[in-house]
Every structure is written in C-alpha cells, then in structure tokens.
From TrEMBL, chain A:
<dbReference type="InterPro" id="IPR019752">
    <property type="entry name" value="Pyrv/ketoisovalerate_OxRed_cat"/>
</dbReference>
<keyword id="KW-0560">Oxidoreductase</keyword>
<dbReference type="Pfam" id="PF01558">
    <property type="entry name" value="POR"/>
</dbReference>
<protein>
    <submittedName>
        <fullName>2-oxoglutarate synthase subunit KorC</fullName>
        <ecNumber>1.2.7.3</ecNumber>
    </submittedName>
</protein>
<dbReference type="GO" id="GO:0047553">
    <property type="term" value="F:2-oxoglutarate synthase activity"/>
</dbReference>
<dbReference type="InterPro" id="IPR052554">
    <property type="entry name" value="2-oxoglutarate_synth_KorC"/>
</dbReference>
<dbReference type="InterPro" id="IPR002869">
    <property type="entry name" value="Pyrv_flavodox_OxRed_cen"/>
</dbReference>
TrEMBL record, chain B:
<dbReference type="InterPro" id="IPR029061">
    <property type="entry name" value="THDP-binding"/>
</dbReference>
<feature type="domain" description="Pyruvate:ferredoxin oxidoreductase core">
    <location>
        <begin position="287"/>
        <end position="381"/>
    </location>
</feature>
<dbReference type="GO" id="GO:0006082">
    <property type="term" value="P:organic acid metabolic process"/>
</dbReference>
<dbReference type="InterPro" id="IPR052368">
    <property type="entry name" value="2-oxoacid_oxidoreductase"/>
</dbReference>
<dbReference type="InterPro" id="IPR002880">
    <property type="entry name" value="Pyrv_Fd/Flavodoxin_OxRdtase_N"/>
</dbReference>
<feature type="domain" description="Pyruvate flavodoxin/ferredoxin oxidoreductase pyrimidine binding">
    <location>
        <begin position="25"/>
        <end position="263"/>
    </location>
</feature>
<dbReference type="GO" id="GO:0047553">
    <property type="term" value="F:2-oxoglutarate synthase activity"/>
</dbReference>
Automatic annotation (TrEMBL), chain C:
<protein>
    <submittedName>
        <fullName>2-oxoglutarate synthase subunit KorB</fullName>
        <ecNumber>1.2.7.3</ecNumber>
    </submittedName>
</protein>
<feature type="domain" description="Thiamine pyrophosphate enzyme TPP-binding">
    <location>
        <begin position="56"/>
        <end position="203"/>
    </location>
</feature>
<keyword id="KW-0560">Oxidoreductase</keyword>
<dbReference type="GO" id="GO:0044272">
    <property type="term" value="P:sulfur compound biosynthetic process"/>
</dbReference>
<dbReference type="GO" id="GO:0045333">
    <property type="term" value="P:cellular respiration"/>
</dbReference>
<dbReference type="InterPro" id="IPR011766">
    <property type="entry name" value="TPP_enzyme_TPP-bd"/>
</dbReference>
<dbReference type="GO" id="GO:0006082">
    <property type="term" value="P:organic acid metabolic process"/>
</dbReference>
Length: 177, 390, 275
C-alpha cells in the first residue's frame, strides 16, 4: 500500500500543520510517512502546499506526483492541483472558497464548508481540522483513533475545539460522487 | 548524559523534521555548545538548540554573524566541550576561513549545512546540493576534512551523532550536508537504544604537562591524531593557525615543518578511509550501468533503479554516505565492470568530477543534473538509465 | 602596586623557548605585555586557568610568549573565539590581546557585539595607529593627514575612537592610557581583570618602524613625548569643559567604571529558572 495526500491552500490556513497531523497519525498507525511542503517567502498569505506519502513499506521518493487524496482550500490551489489527482482518486474541497469547482474526469468528489463550519464553532482557524474530519470520514487510510491522537499531540491548546471541529467535519461532509 | 537526553525526549518514535533530527542527534552526542546565526533553511536547528541547551547545562548563543558563530564554536571546543553550528550556503561561505583554522589547529567541531539554491543568496527556501565541492575545497590550502550526506530524517539523526564521533576521533571539522528538502521534511524517527548508542570522546593527554607536546603523535599510540589537553587543564597549550611545530609554536618558514604537518593532517584521515567511508550498494553483481548518488537525491535514484530492474535493465546503485574523503580505490573497484555511470545531483555536476576521475576512458560518466529547487523525480533518473542501455 | 624584577616576570610568566620576541626595537607592545603580566602577578591570578586569545597582527603575537593557554586565532576574530572559550568554561580568565586594526576594522563587529552581550572578558587593545605586521598600511585609527604606505599622500578618512565606542555601547569598564603612563596602565589592567563583564583597556603605543618613520616622528622617545603632548587626562578635560573650553586632544584615563551583570551570570540565572 502506498498513498499520496496533497493538501493545498494559502498561507495561514494551517495547511502544513494538516500535513503534519496526517503524517504523524499514519506513524501512530504503524505506517511509514513522509511529509514535505512548499511555500513562498511570505509568512502569511501566498500559496501553500503540504504533501504526505504514506506506505507500509520504506518510502524512497518522498514527493506526491498524482495524489490519491487532494484536500483543497483555495480557488488557485483547485486550478493547480485538482487535476493532479489520480484516476479514481478523492478530491475534498471547501466549495465556499472554491466557487468554480467543476472538474472533468474520473474522481471521487466530496464537499465540506470547512471555513463556515469553523467560524460557527468559534474561529475559522480550525477549518483545516474540519477538512481533516471530512477526510477521515470518506477515506479509511488512517484510523480515527490515530488521527485524534495526532491532533492531541500536535495542537495541545484548544483541544476541545479542535476535536469538535474534527467530529463536525466527519458529520457534515457531503459526498457528491 | 546521553541516556538522560533520550529519557528527556520521552517518546521513542518521533515525527520530526531533518533540522530537528540534527538537534536531537547533537544532544545525544553530548554536544553542549551551540553558536549560530539565523538563515533559511537551517534556522530550525538553531531554534531547537536554543530550547535544549539551557535545559541540559549547555550553552546556546546567537552570534553577530556566521564567522563569529564558527569562531565561538572553535573557542568552546578548545575547552573540551563538544560544539556545533548550523548554516546554509551564504553563511557556509563566510565560515570557510575558520573551517580551515579548525583543520590546521585540529579542533573538533560539527557544521550542519542545510543546502539551498545558490550562488549567492539564490533560492533561500529551495533545496540544492550545490555546496558539495565547497564543503571539501571551500577553505584555502591542502587539507582533509570529513563530510557526510544523509538521505532521510532518521539518518540525519544517526549521522549527526556520527559526525561528532568522527570529529572527536580525528580532530577535524565534520560537515553534515543536508538540503532544504530533508531539513524541512518530516519523517518517522526512532531514537537509538540507550545501551547501543556509541558516543566517542577525543583522546585526552596521557602524559603529564612537562612531557606533553600538543601536536606530538605516535608517542603512546600509533594514530596520527594528537592527544588533546583542554584549556584550563594545566597543560598550558598554545593553539595557532600558523604552521606550527609539535610544541604548537609558530614555525612559518621551514619547509620540513610545514610539509610534515600538512601531510599528517591529511594522512590522519586518509589512512583510516576504510573505516570512515560509509556507503551502500545494491544490484551491483551484474550491473552494466551504475547510478551513484548521495543525500536526498538517493531517494528518487533508488526508485528509478528498482523500476529499471523491473524492466530488465542491468543497473546497480551506489549511495555515498561519506562524500569526503572520496574513496577512489574502492570506487574504482565497484565501477570497473560498468560501461556507464550516472550521477544524479541537485547541481550542474560536482561529485561527477571525482567519479569521472575514478574510471578509465572506456567508461562513460553521465551527469544527471537538476537545479531550481525540486528534487529529481524517479522518471527523470530512469530516462538517463534507459538512454544508456546498450 | 608591587614592583618585581624583570627576571621574575620572565621566569614565571614567559615561554622562554619562544624568546626573543618578534617585536621591533622601540615597539610598545612588549611594554604593554609587561604591564599586563605585572597586573596578573599582583592579583595572583592562576595561570593554569587563564587563556590569552588573539587575532592577527603584531599585538596578536603576545599570547605566544606567555606561559598559559593561548589561542592565536584569525584576523579580527579574537573576541569571537574568546566568547566561545568564556561561555563554554566560565571558570577561565579570558584575556584578549588585539591591535587597532584587528579590533576596530576586520573585527569591529565582534568588538561591538561582545560589549553588547557583556561577555566577561578583558580586551587589551594596543593602538599604534597603523598596520605594523604588513609593513605600515592605513588603519581605522590612523589620524587624518598621517602617511602610511597605502595613504602615501596623507590619510583622508576620519579615525575611529575605540574607547569611546566601547563606552557608548555600554562596556562596564573602559580605560585608555599610553605607554608613557606605565603605572596608570597597570592599575587599569588590574581593575579590568577584576571587573565582571566586558572590560576594555586601550593603550596608545609607539610603532617607530612604520608609523614613526613614515610620519617623521623620530625615535620612541620622541613618539612617547608626542603621546604625552597630544593626550589629555579625563579629569583635566572635565575641568576644561566646565570652564566652557574644549580641545582636539585624545582623552585618556579611566573612562567608565560601572557594575553590570555579565552574560554568564544572566545565562546561569535563567537556566536555573527553567528547572
């Protein structure tokens, strides 16, 4: 088993942290994981991408070429990365951030209003965790227990809020096809 | 002390960046002095040391520039404390004069260079392997130091410990060559078993101050590495970057003294090259094409070699872990039956040169360069392999 | 101040197998080394726990002659090397010998930041207004209009004042004397060695071979006389100021003597608070 997960959006959305949480969760599951990232020189804003390769074998090439799963949190990232998902791969996106979300091809699609849900829960900075909840619901790659363990380990502050965001993401994800 | 660190770190399995792994490796190796200056993509090493040094009775200091950083590291090491600094290309260039000093005065120190795109300020956040030649030949004059290049976060931790061991054993600066990719990459890391981790110390003076000569070798043991008396131990040693005699005193116009010293500085490492030269090989038995790689580039290289093997191509792989000193003799032996050697590097061909120097004119050496920041994809390397099938 | 014979200084404090020194006839560096060793003798400092650090230049050869640990580092870097020594082993007494070029030009930034950091070291800067070891080139301290081999028509750059720089950056001890003031100089070195934190003693010293010859200043005696005439004691200067007068003369004397917590003390304290 080998899967590549690409999380993309803009700086400040917690894109890289999301990658770290997924990678760490995979390690908690006893898998190998490599997380890499790419971002511009600016500390906030700018496009950001985080990639995680998960495998039960040793991982040689650490980068994701065609992603098994794409989590997308900006229009610009959607244009750039949605089509770089594998055939029959999964694309999860936030439709309110990505109004132009038509895509041709053999993909599984799921929507989650992560940013709005996060705002309703108290702060939009947990939108990335809502996305991860949606990811966990529609994809069985990593166990829920390990994801929660990883969230606890990675964000010790505001734990209840983050766990709530994760659960809400799991509940509210809308599978389109 | 090492055991305390592993216990202090708590969890055994970590999911951390290469830069952080260098920090943990340094802590386990008993490094207790760090001086540095912020620079992308190596800053996380300094940040990690700033957290840990004060908690472990060590010293962290942010100096005014990279020259001051390596200078303070050498000063600290003279007192017997294991010392390290970290930097990237521009800072590494500034450190070169002091690296030469550490070679000449035989002061152990470890320099972590997280390589980024150059020349000059270049690409601060992008990976490169452009400092390979500079690591060995950046400082002036004949000398020999040691440089290691890990391929993973786990190996970064392991080789940081080994960098300290080699630096202490041979009293040379050791350069750990990471790159922006591995420095910022997160991967699973397993901390070493407390009982098995090997941590070396420099050999102390075994004779009293009256008979001790700081640069006398072969007195009580066969090694060409002199015994070390730290500042403050009553041995009253004099350390200089000038050509010096066995007492450590400057003798700058004697050809004999200079030649004996400089040759010994090189031989003390070269004589033990079989022990220092770490490498890995795979599929070499029947290989007609051999890929030689090091550092991060080894990862797509291994993928490419595996794919080519599946396609029935007789291709083998050598991964250099120790990149300096370069083992010409062993490499000649490994490469003798290959018609083609492919050298993928994140530069326009640097390790390519010693490899070309190694083989005869019947063997073709192909540089497979990539610059700009992205690491090679396996397919890019595979294309080079397929292109040379006869 | 106790007076001891040269024999005692040589016997107890110098590496006899390194003698004679490389210093020219009439050079002031030997005198400053002598002042420093006598100060050390007076304070009964343990030479087994003393490290002399230097960079490159005539004055930087001093540690080579002193029987203690010595670190002859690179041009300009003495203070940075010394910072490493002192921080790694706070028990050691660390004394830097440096020149005006080593300290004020190539090493200027390290000088500035070691003061800012308040590292507990003593820096003795021998200022001869010229680069002596390379044969008499312009230094950052060379006075305007002075001739050197690289200012053959006279120097047009304003000189730096090392002691005033140390003072404004906040060094807790700063003194400046000339080799014509041996007792005052020894006393200041003694105070500097006892000060916790960055202490700085600048000593104006004759270089008859380069500076003196190129500027037609005659022998060491003439140069020493010139030092006396071209400097003014701070106490006299302050009186002048009070009377509304000013002077172009270089101010000598004890310029700063305050208490200020040093890096090692602060570091040790905050490490203690972490546990």
């Amino acid at each position: 088993m080998k899967a590549g997960i690409r999380i993309s959006g803009f700086g400040g959305q917690g894109i890289i942290l999301s990658g770290v949480i997924v990678g760490k969760a995979a390690v908690f599951d006893g898998l190998n994981a490599v997380q890499t990232q790419s971002y511009g020189p600016e500390a906030r804003g700018g496009s950001t991408r985080s990639e995680v390769v998960v495998s039960d074998e040793e991982i040689d090439y650490p980068k994701v070429e065609s992603a098994s799963v794409s989590l997308i949190m900006s229009q610009e990232a959607f244009y750039k990365y949605a089509s770089r998902t594998k055939r029959e791969g999964l694309i999860i996106y936030d439709p309110e951030l990505i109004p132009d979300n038509k895509i041709e091809g053999n993909f599984k699609l799921a929507e989650i209003n992560a940013t709005r849900i996060a705002s309703e829960l108290g702060t939009k900075i947990v939108a990335n965790i809502v996305m991860l909840g949606a990811f966990n619901e529609v994809c069985s790659l990593i166990s829920k227990d390990s994801m929660i363990e990883s969230i606890k380990d990675s964000i010790p502050k505001m734990l209840d809020l983050n766990l709530n965001a994760f659960e809400t993401g799991m509940k509210k994800v809308n599978i389109i096809k | 002390m090492t055991n305390d660190v592993i216990r202090l770190l708590g969890k055994k399995d970590l999911f951390i960046q290469g830069d952080e792994a260098a920090v943990y490796g340094a802590l386990i190796a008993d490094c207790r002095f760090f001086a540095g200056y912020p620079i992308t993509p190596a800053t996380e090493v300094a940040e990690g040391m700033a957290i840990w040094m004060p908690r472990l009775g060590g010293v962290y200091v942010q100096m005014e520039d990279e020259i001051a950083s390596i200078a303070a590291v050498i000063g600290a090491s003279c007192t017997g404390v294991k010392s390290m600094t970290s930097t990237s290309g521009p800072g590494f260039s500034l450190m070169q004069e002091c690296i030469g000093y550490a070679c000449m005065a035989e002061i152990p120190c470890v320099i972590v260079n997280v390589q980024r795109g150059g020349p000059s300020t270049g690409q601060p956040t992008e990976a490169a392997q452009g400092d390979v030649m500079q690591a060995m030949w950046g400082t002036h004059g004949d000398h020999q130091l040691i440089a290691l290049a890990p391929k993973s976060v786990q190996e970064t931790l392991d080789l940081t410990i080994e960098s300290f061991n080699l630096s202490e054993d041979y009293r040379v600066p050791v350069i750990l060559l990471l790159d922006a990719e591995i420095g910022h990459m997160r991967e699973k890391v397993v901390l070493p078993e407390v009982t098995t981790v090997k941590v070396d110390e420099r050999v102390p003076a075994t004779i009293g101050p009256d008979k001790y000569r700081p640069y006398r070798t072969g007195f009580t043991r066969p090694s060409k590495v002199p015994e070390f008396a730290p500042f403050g131990s009553g041995y009253r040693t004099y350390v200089t970057g000038l050509t010096h005699d066995k007492r450590g005193f400057p003798v700058t116009t004697s050809a004999e003294v200079h030649e004996e010293l400089v040759r010994r500085l090189i031989e003390k490492v070269q004589d033990d090259i079989d022990d220092i030269w770490y490498h890995e090989t795979s599929f070499l038995e029947d290989a007609e094409i051999i890929v030689v790689s090091y550092g991060t580039t080894s990862r797509p290289a291994v993928s490419a070699v595996k794919m080519a093997r599946k396609n029935g191509i007789k291709v083998g792989h050598i991964r250099l872990i120790t990149i300096w000193p370069f083992h010409y003799e062993k490499m000649r032996e490994y490469l003798k039956n290959a018609h083609t050697v492919i050298v993928p590097e994140m530069n326009l061909g640097q390790m390519f040169h010693p490899i070309r120097e190694t083989v005869g004119k019947d063997t073709k050496v192909v540089s497979a360069p990539k610059i700009g920041g992205a690491i090679h994809t396996p397919y890019e390397i595979l294309k080079f392999i397929e292109g040379d099938v006869k | 101040m106790s007076f001891i014979s040269n024999d005692i200084v040589i016997d107890k404090y110098l590496r006899k197998d390194m003698l004679p020194t490389i210093f020219c006839t009439g050079c002031g560096i030997g005198s400053v080394m002598n002042f420093c060793l006598r100060a050390i003798h007076d304070l009964n400092i343990d030479m087994n726990k003393t490290v002399f650090v230097s960079g490159i230049g005539c004055s930087s050869r001093v540690p080579g002659y002193i029987y203690s640990d010595g670190l002859h580092s690179l041009h300009g870097r003495a203070i940075a090397y010394a910072t490493g020594v002192k921080l790694a082993n706070p028990e050691l007494k660390v004394i830097v010998f440096t020149g005006d070029g080593d300290c004020g030009a190539i090493g200027g930034n390290h000088f500035l930041h070691a003061i800012r950091r308040n590292v507990d070291i003593t820096v003795i800067s021998i200022n001869n207004f010229i680069y002596g070891m390379t044969g008499g080139q312009v230094a950052p301290t060379t006075p305007l209009r002075s001739k050197t081999t690289t200012t053959p028509y006279g120097n047009i750059e304003y000189p730096i004042d090392l002691s005033m720089m140390a003072k404004v950056i906040g060094a807790p001890y700063v003194a400046r004397w000339t080799t014509a003031h041996p007792i005052q100089c020894m006393n200041s070195i003694k105070k500097a060695l006892q000060k916790t934190g960055f202490s700085f003693v600048e000593v104006l010293a004759p270089c008859p071979t380069s500076y003196g010859r190129l500027n037609k200043m005659g022998n060491t005696l003439d140069m020493t006389k010139h030092f006396k005439e071209s400097t003014i004691n701070i106490k006299t200067y302050e009186k002048m100021l009070a009377e509304g007068k000013d002077t172009d003369k270089m101010i000598i004397g004890e310029l700063v003597d305050i208490e200020k917590e040093d890096f090692n003390t602060k570091y040790k304290k905050f490490c203690g608070e972490l546990k």
